């Protein structure tokens, strides 16, 4: 399958369809899938190839057996490692646990390259899916967030 991108964002958000409708109502899709800790997009334009790498920074997971009930939790990477945020509970977890979950929304941050103009018509983008064998790869630092705006 080929996708056409008009720009390469700093934060790449992937929404995974985990619910479907049928005659019986809304059903949860529980099919396992491989979640990548990182991926690379190759951009080729005018015989110049650039690579843009992305690293997983957060994941949202639905816990429950069906679409009409359950609970959402977030896994977020900080400079101190991965953490599970479940209402008021915050628990440190390993990266392998995050990759095993049935994620609903994935947030990747660009780890190299700079935000640039959209690729021109006729240029090509392809996504490379790395294969990791053995211990999980080391993940990068999360984006640095500024102070929240002051209302007044």
Topology (elements, then pairings):
Elements: E1 11-15, E2 19-22, E3 25-28, E4 38-45, E5 48-63, E6 71-78, E7 81-86, E8 89-93, H1 95-100, E9 103-110, E10 124-128
Antiparallel strand pairs: 1-9, 2-3, 4-5, 4-10, 5-6, 5-9, 6-7, 7-8
Write a structural description.
Strands 1, 4, 5, 6, 7, 8, 9 and 10 form an eight-stranded antiparallel β-sheet that branches. This protein has a two-stranded antiparallel sheet with strand order 2-3. Helices cover 4% and strands 45% of the residues. It is flat, with a radius of gyration of 18 Å. With 152 residues, the protein is mostly beta strands.
List keywords for this structure.
152 residues; two-stranded antiparallel ribbon; 4% helix; mainly beta; eight-stranded antiparallel β-sheet
What's the short story on this structure?
The protein is mainly β and 152 residues long. The protein has one helix and ten strands, in the order E-E-E-E-E-E-E-E-H-E-E.
Poorly predicted runs? 117-152
| Whole-number mean pLDDT | 74
> Strand count, sense and closure of the main sheet?
8 strands, antiparallel
Oligomer: single chain
Pattern of helices and strands: EEEEEEEEHEE
Distance between the termini: 49 Å
Q: Strand fraction band?
A: over 45%
Q: What radius of gyration results from the CA coordinates?
A: 18 Å
Helix run count: 1
Give the overall silhouette.
flat
Structural class: mainly beta
Helical content band = under 10%
| Extended strand count | 10
């Amino acid at each position: 399958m080929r996708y056409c991108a008009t720009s390469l964002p700093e934060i790449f958000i992937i929404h995974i369809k985990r619910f479907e409708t049928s005659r019986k109502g809304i059903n949860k899709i529980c099919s396992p899938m491989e979640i990548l800790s990182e991926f690379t997009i190759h951009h080729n334009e005018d015989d110049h190839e650039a690579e843009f790498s992305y690293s997983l920074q957060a994941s949202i997971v639905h816990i429950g057996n069906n679409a009409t009930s359950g609970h959402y939790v977030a896994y977020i990477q900080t400079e101190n490692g991965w953490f599970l945020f479940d209402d008021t509970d915050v628990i440190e977890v390993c990266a392998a646990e995050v990759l095993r979950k049935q994620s609903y929304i994935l947030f990747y941050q660009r780890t190299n390259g700079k935000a640039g103009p959209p690729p021109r018509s006729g240029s090509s983008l392809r996504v490379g899916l790395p294969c990791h064998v053995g211990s999980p790869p080391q993940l990068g630092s999360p984006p640095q967030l500024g102070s929240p705006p002051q209302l007044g």
